[in-house]
Write a structure and sequence with these properties.
Blueprint: H1 3-26, H2 32-43, H3 57-80, H4 85-92, H5 95-107, H6 113-130, H7 139-161, H8 167-174, H9 179-189, H10 193-202, H11 205-232, H12 235-238, H13 245-257, H14 263-280
Helix pairs in contact: 1-4, 1-11, 1-13, 2-3, 2-9, 2-11, 3-7, 3-8, 4-13, 5-7, 6-14, 7-11, 8-11
Length: 285
């Protein structure tokens, strides 16, 4: 991967790391279906002037259902059920090895030994971080987060499979998919149409700002750049960059919620960074 594209990947990881904390902020005023509905309604505004990407409606809907609907509905429900922002950021990164594994099975990708070694070191770091996050997290919430990571990985592989398309257009048009199931869940679980307007009018400015960030930066910008990288490089080269997300999420959580980092967590974050370096820095020059 070129140095310029590495910078882009790190930028996306930073945007997504902050997004985990802002998701928790958004859920102070909105239910999981409401936050999903508002996030992707914002992201889908671009369809008014951006042409639909040259892929079938079937594939577009599948990408919208996996990369966006499944991932974020499940993620928001997990947070609402008791998953702290830091733990959510960690568990979500199960998508990295899942993406590599699915790409091997479906697309025939073959990660190098260096990439595998780097992934193993980084995953050990993830385990170390997970050991510091305490107890009391509901099992159902944890399993929902794993399902969210699986949905994300399936979406990654679908995006990689389509080849060269305009990723900004793809992400905007795929954002049309989540609002409908989210709207149905909102009507079913949250008390009808009035609940949406009531939540918006009574929401704090922080929650409204979180919706804007999640819709425009974490969705349109983040996934457009991420999708472009997946289309250009192997999944094994791109997916490990997502392992930076928990590091950024942990730092942001400290700044926003005052989370304290113990030595084992810092060790795990360091191992993740070392694993990333092993994965992306060429050994033979």
């Amino acid at each position: 991967m070129s140095p310029r594209h590495m910078v882009f990947a790190i930028l996306v990881a930073s945007i997504w790391g902050i997004a985990f904390v802002l998701s928790k902020v958004g859920l102070r005023s909105f239910t999981p279906p409401q936050l999903t509905l508002l996030r992707f309604t914002c992201a889908a505004i671009g369809v008014l002037w951006l042409p639909r990407p040259a892929i079938s409606w079937r594939l577009l809907i599948l990408i919208g259902l996996t990369l966006f609907t499944g991932q974020f509905l499940l993620q928001f429900f997990g947070i609402a059920m008791g998953m702290p922002a830091g733990l959510t950021a960690v568990v979500a990164q199960a998508q990295a090895p899942l993406t590599v594994l699915l790409a091997v099975c479906v697309l025939g990708d073959r990660p190098s030994r260096q990439q595998i070694s780097g992934m193993v070191v980084a995953l050990v770091g993830l385990v170390a971080i997970s050991l510091t996050l305490g107890h009391g997290v509901p099992l159902a919430a944890f399993l929902i987060m794993l399902a969210s990571a699986l949905s994300w990985s399936v979406g990654n592989v679908l995006v990689k499979r389509i080849g060269k398309v305009d990723m900004l257009h793809l992400m905007v048009w795929a954002s049309l998919v989540p609002p409908l199931p989210a709207f149905i869940l909102t009507i079913t679980l949250d008390g009808g149409y009035a609940s949406i307007l009531s939540a918006i009018t009574s929401a704090s400015w922080e929650s409204l700002a979180a919706v804007v960030y999640l819709g425009f930066f974490a969705t349109i910008l983040g996934y457009a750049v991420w999708g472009s990288l997946l289309a250009r490089y192997s999944a094994a080269a791109v997916a490990p960059f997502a392992l930076l997300v928990p590091c950024v999420g942990a730092i942001t959580s400290h700044l926003v919620f005052g989370e304290v980092f113990e030595p084992l967590r810092l060790t795990g974050m360091t191992m993740m960074l070392i694993g990333l370096l092993i994965t992306i820095v060429p050994l033979n020059r």
